[in-house]
Amino acid sequence: MLKRMTALFLLLLCLCTSAMAEYYIDNPHPADRLHLRQSPSSKAKSLGKYYNGAPIEALSSDQNGWVQVRVGMGSASQTGYMNASYLSDTKPKDAMPQYITASKMYAYTKPSFYSDTITVPAGRLVSLMGIIEGDEEWYHLMIHTQTSEGCYFCFVPEKTGAGFKALKALGKGCGVNAYISNPDSRDRLHLREKPDMNAKSLGKFYNGAIGTVLGFEADGTWVKVELYGQIGYMLNEFLYLEGEGPNPTYYGIPTVRAVGNTAKVYFNKPDASDNYEAILTPGTPLDVLGLIGEELLQVRLTENGGSTFYIYREDTDFVDTRYE
Fold this sequence. Notes:
single chain; eight-stranded antiparallel beta sheet
């Protein structure tokens, strides 16, 4: 059932800072998409099929199991009816496919080639809210600006090269790099186990460390990344995503040297059962990418910038005077 529907409607935050949504599509079968109907009937014409997590604005109260809604905002929106049993005022797990604009993209304010056009810059996070089928298939998109400006909406035709084909799907191996780019060069950025400031830290990494984007949380605040073999979440505001313009990253990776006669490196973490060890020659220069806990460093050889591995902090001359 549509939860806590009232005549005045309780406004909840949308996926973006500038857009407000009262409800979200919440289908118990996330693989399905919910029809936006022209009239309050399951036999009425479909105006589009929308994914779980898409924000909607309710324009009426529940009437015989149907609610009049608006999907999107302003001119780039669609109005119709949705089944009330698939709407919720609690944000569900997001099933909207996500993309990043690999190049400049041209879009429309309506699902029509006769509508006004807008330009979407490269490097923008994009959520696919729904698909409008017909003679020409259109995609209803939400564009995240990742700034205080919030988000905006648009339509692109699936078959037009200047439209949807400018989008690069986010997923393992998608090739979109994320550079740690903290304006406070004294800081290191946590890789969190979950998209939560209180979640377990998998390590603290320096400016200039590079990960691969695997996805975004719905509001764009957290980015899921693979970082040197570890997968976790980082705050988007401290990342530079490839394609967003000139890379502003201040390179903050320190170089240290191995010390002692038997400095061991580990190609898996030292407590891993399948760990592989090697011995470093004393004096070998290493780039410190991050700290795993208080005792372990994740490093790479300075000379060839190759694969990464772990070494105990005490087996190096690591002293970071910016923090200690």
